[in-house]
Amino acid sequence: MTSAIAPTTTMLINGNRVPASSGAELPVTDPYLGEDFATIPDAGAPDVDVAIEAARAAFDGTWRDTPGVQRAALMHRFADLLEENAEQIGLLESRDNGKLVRETTSQARFAARNYRFFAGAADKLSGRTIPMDSIDTFDYTLAEPAGVAALITAWNSPMQLLANKLAPALAAGNCVVIKPSEHASLSTLAIADLIEQAGFPAGVINIISGGAAAGAALTSHPGLDRISFTGSVPTGRAIATAAAQNLVPVTLELGGKSPNIVFADADLDRAVTGAVAGIFAAGGQTCIAGSRLLVQRAVYDEVVSAVAKRADEIRLGDPRDPQTQMGPVANRPQFERIQAVIAGGLESGAHAVTTTGPLDGAGLGNGLFVRPTVFGDVSNTSPLAREEIFGPVLSAIPFEDDEEAIAIANDSNYGLASGIWTNDLTRAHKVARRLRAGTVWVNTYRASAAQAPFGGTRQSGYGRERGLEALQEYLTTKNVMIDLSGKTADPFSIRT
C-alpha cells in the first residue's frame, strides 16, 4: 500500500519547504518491516531561530489582529482537508510508528473534530466588564493571544496530540512552531501541504523536525511566549527547567500509571473488555494506559483469568492489516526498555498469568513485537506498579473494599487517568471524587471528546488540553482601567 501523501524531506518555515540548514537528516524506520524508508531533516539552533522569527513576524504583522471569524474559517477548511486525507495520513503515521492503521485514521478524523470545535470558539473570546468601587472608574478586561507558542508532540499519536495543542493555539490567535518527535515526524511534516491549501498566512504555522539539539534550542529560546509539551517525565522536567530561565509558561502532558478499578458489582464482561482496551490498545503505548488493574477480591481470580485469556488471544501482526489487533512497538529504544522490564519482573519472582517467552510466527516479520503480558498479585510497591512502562504490560492488584481501592489508586507519583467499573451509581460518584486524577472514566476507558478537558496532576503534568479550558493555556488577560471623573488626582497617593 502507498500513500497519496508521501513522506517529505522538508520542513515548513515561513511558508517555505526547507531542509535543515546543515543538510543533516535522520532515518525513518518502519517498526513492522524493520527497514528505513524515508528521512527527515535534523534541524539545529539556526533553523529554530528562523522559525521563531517567522512566527513572531507573522504574529506582529497581521495575525494577532485577524478577526476570530476569519481564523475560524481557516481552521474549518483545514479540518475538511484533514478529514478528506485521513486515510492517507493514517497510513503514513501507521508506517511511521507501528500503530494500527484503523486507529491512526480514526485519530486523524478526531483531530479534524478538534479543529472544528475550537474554530467555533475563535470568534467568541471575550473579556468582562468589572464593577468598581467608584462610578467614575470604568474597568474591563481583554482576552489576548499569548504570542508565539512552541508545540512539541510525542511519537505515539502525532496527529491527535498536535490537534490538542494547535487547535486552541490558533483559535486564541497565536502563531506556532511545531516540533514532532524524531521517532514519528512524517504525518506532521506531511500536513504542510494541507496548511498551505487551507490558506494560512506564511509564518503562522511553522514545522521543524529533528532530535535533541532541535528540541533543546526550541525550548530554551527567549523568543517564545508559551510551550506545550507531551512526552516523558524526564523530558518534561528538562523543558520546564529550560523554560523557567526565560520565565516562559509551560503546559505539560506527561506520563501515567493509571488505575483501572473493577468492583464486584460491575458488569464483568464489560470490565474485562475495558481492561484489555486500557492496556493493550496501541500496544500500551499511551499515557492514559490503564496499566494497574485493581480488582475487588471477590471477583479477582475470575477477572484476571479472563483478561489473561484475552491477552493471549490478541492477534499481533502488520498494523496495516485490518485483522491485526496489536502492532509492533514504535521504536527500538522503547522495545528494549519494555523487554527489560518484563525480564526484570520475571527475575524478581513476579507471577505472569499470561504466556511468556519469545514470539514467533508468520506475520511478525522483522517487527518490534512484545508479547501482551499480565502480572498477577502485584504489590503496589513493586516497580511493575510504580514505573510507567509504556508498553503492553499489566499489573493486577487485588483489593478488599472501596477505601483500600482508593488508597491503592492514589498511591502513585502520577495522576493522569483512572477507570471505575461498577453498577452502583453512588459508589461511582463517591470514588470518582476521591481519585487523584485529571480524568475519571466510569464503565468505559480510553474515551476522548473535543469538549472534554484533559490533563493531569503530580508527575503527570499540569495545564489542560481539549475542552474550553485549553484556550486559557494560550490566552493572556489584559486589564484596562479608565478614569471618567475628569478630576486631577493627588500625584502622591495611589488611587483606590
From TrEMBL:
Give the InterPro entries listed for this entry: Ald_DH/histidinol_DH, Ald_DH_C, Ald_DH_CS_CYS, Ald_DH_CS_GLU, Ald_DH_N, Aldehyde_DH_dom
Q: Which UniProt keywords apply?
A: Oxidoreductase
Q: What are the catalytic residues?
A: 253
At the top level, the lineage of the source is Bacteria
Q: Which CDD domains match?
A: ALDH_DhaS
Record flagged with keyword GTP-binding: no
Per its record, what are the GO molecular function terms? oxidoreductase activity, acting on the aldehyde or oxo group of donors, NAD or NADP as acceptor
The record, for Pfam families, names: Aldedh
- Family of this protein: Belongs to the aldehyde dehydrogenase family.
Recorded protein name is Aldehyde dehydrogenase (NAD+)
Q: Name the species this protein comes from.
A: Antricoccus suffuscus
